[in-house]
Amino acid sequence: MGSTGRFIASIPKIVVALLLVAAIVNLLIGVFLRYVMVPVTDWLDVDAIRFTWVEEVGEMMLAWLALVGAAIGVRERVHFTLHVLRLSPTAQLWANRVHHVLIAIFGALAAWYGVKLCLLNRTLVTPGLEINLAVLYASSVVGGVLLVIYAISMIVAPPPPDASIVPLEVRAE
Q1: Residue 22 in domain
Q2: Which of 27, 48, 52, 29 is nearest to 39 (CA)?
Q3: Could you tell me the pTM of the whole model?
Q4: How far is Cα 15 from Cα 24, in angstroms, rounded to an integer?
Q5: Gap between the Cα atoms of 160 and 77, Å rounded
Q6: Does residue 99 sit within a domain?
Q7: Chain segment 16-32, per-residue pLDDT in tens
């Protein structure tokens, strides 16, 4: 894969990293406005600073972080797994393929219903910032499509088995 392909493959990770930083900054702004500026404006007897937008921005970021992050977790194989069956390498490969088929189906359903929600709510806006609600529901479309792409890539070209996974009975203490 060339440098352009690596960059394109890293776009979801970059987006999630930027969203995480923005969510932290948004949270800090909310805390500052609530616990510092509200008492200051009360003490000065001036109009309060409205900060309802902080919740709306946080909700949008959380949705995008969760859904795109879930897809990245599938691609990076970092989701929790429980190894209770001792399968042959061939059986394990097929179990992983079935597992990723189910993930792809879930991603397709999330994307399909996300599109329906986007179309249904395209005329509605959030109360504070008046952001189109389709932006919120588009997170399920993007996350679902990424889940499908990453799950199919794991079916077509599965990574080598993880050598660090050793059944409990075999581990030496």
Answers
A1: yes
A2: 48
A3: 0.81
A4: 14
A5: 11
A6: yes
A7: 999 999 999 999 999 99
